[in-house]
Specification:
Blueprint: E1 2-6, H1 16-22, E2 25-29, H2 33-42, E3 49-52, E4 56-58, H3 60-67, E5 74-77, E6 80-83, H4 85-96, H5 105-108, H6 111-122, E7 126-128, E8 136-138, H7 142-153, H8 157-164, H9 172-191, H10 196-215, H11 219-246, H12 251-278, H13 284-307, H14 317-326, H15 329-338, H16 342-355, H17 358-386, H18 393-403, H19 407-415, H20 426-444, H21 451-467, H22 480-499, H23 504-527, H24 535-540, H25 543-557, H26 560-588
Parallel strand pairs: 1-2, 1-3, 5-7
Antiparallel strand pairs: 3-6, 4-8, 5-6
Helix pairs in contact: 2-4, 4-6, 9-11, 10-11, 10-12, 11-16, 12-13, 12-23, 13-17, 13-18, 13-22, 13-23, 16-17, 18-22, 19-21, 20-21, 20-22, 21-25, 22-23, 22-25, 23-26, 25-26
Amino acid sequence: MSTAILTGPPVAGSPLEADLRTLGFDVRIADDAASAAELVAAVPAQERVAVVDPRFVGHLHALRLALTDPRFPAAAVPGALTAQPEARAALARAVGRIPVGAGTAHLTDVLTDTLTESLDREVSGLHRVELGSLVATVALTPAQREDAREAVAAVDDEAVRLRTAVKSRDGFFTTYCISPYSRYLARWCARRGLTPNQVTTASLLTALIAAGCAATGTRGGFVAAGLLLLFSFVLDCTDGQLARYSLQYSTMGAWLDATFDRAKEYAYYAGLALGAARAGDDVWALALGAMVLQTCRHVVDFSFNEANHDATANTSPTAALSDKLDSVGWTVWVRRMIVLPIGERWAMIAVLTALTTPRIVFYALLIGCALAACYTTAGRVLRSLTRRARRTDRAAQALADLADSGPLAELIAGRGRGRGRTGSFLAPVMAFLSAAVLLVWVIFQDDPMSWLTVGVAACSALLAGAAVARPLKGALDWLVPPFFRAGEYVTILVLAARADVPGALPAAFGLVAAVAYHHYDTVYRIRGGTGAPPRWLVRATGGHEGRILVITVLAAALSPSGFTIALTALAVVLALLVLIESIRFWVSSQAPAVHDEGEPA
């Protein structure tokens, strides 16, 4: 139970006390600033405290936004403010500084406003709610109260609540084909006490059933799979809308939503590949290729965003052109659809699954995602080259964490420390060469499953170590993690395909899925403000260069069938290792609540 302190006697006929109890607050009355300070100090330190002026008039949703949002340590609207445990000390100091006696009426007349100004100076995370059409005010006279009540009656706060439950920026398909009704499903869930995490789990289970239907390989199974995949996406939209509607934000919720999205999509790829195999068509290479391409696209998104998370002095003319295009309505939707975001992508997959074959589904995916990747990456490269921005130590550390360098690359980087110049193009060039040397060898060699490939992998590791020897603060250093991902994933794909034995590509699919989960987990730990996974986990998984060396050694030392068994065992071991540590972390994490608006892709 949270505590709300009314700083004065309640106003007759006001629904304020009832509204506060509806929001879950225990209401207490303070006659003046001194008694308010005593009540604040008496509330247990682990509880949220709200201070509300009894003359407050406004929408219930305005109070909800100010007093119950878990993302901010302190928040305020006119006449009401709240402090979570991390901001309680600041609130106590602010209340304690309020003077009493003659000449202090201007400070205590609207005590909440005085406290808000004090917290604003002391608490960097104070959130002032953007009310929009909602009303929140302190009515000092009967006339002001009557005017405020009329303003409240003129706006339906439930309609506002439903409208703002939908993401402000989303894809065309989601905006016009899903959100118009999924918001009502979110409200239905909220009224029945369902949580966003429960809806997220339901979406995952629905997608897994869809994958199972696709795995039957029958036309009826494919039709059912397409329909269930669309329903899974409806639920996927609903969980975020439920979080916004009921303000049930959490770091774990954002992590579940993001990782389950990938699990759903990649499990569906596997279901399509199994279904095709039942019909005599082996499309495992296409399924793995689609997963690799989609994952690399996301790594580009993550790396670019982290590199520019807190960059200053953005003077890119490319960014200015993009902003100009966003001011023209139809170009906004075209540009959002070009990148094939999750709504458009899943709709395409569902329709093609129901009407065509798995092979056609994967061809469309590969072509569409490749074009989208070229468009987005080219635009980001242009922005990076034309902007004048200073990258921070935080951004450099995030890129180093995303690079996922293991013990070997660390050793090489340590020996090369101090060489090269921070901010040059050396890091992305070395990372590109690290991936290119290896991929050219395994793709074009007649027999890549040899000890010579191990030597090439060792050279690739040397180049990878050189790439991360300096802080990643250059204009294009955000390309380092995507190059490493492409080198590792495609190497696994090619070696499994060249093994040319049943089961090799499905085993490689499982291995890449396990490693990709580790990389997504890293992203969401960084975004949640908790930092990357512990170094012992990165070292235990070998880092990208260590895994490549192990896989090339296995390919050279074992027969094709033995290599398949080894890939399967490696996939199981890595999956267990990263899943157990990840689940342990997220269940016990005390990271602040976040709200992830999702990726454009």
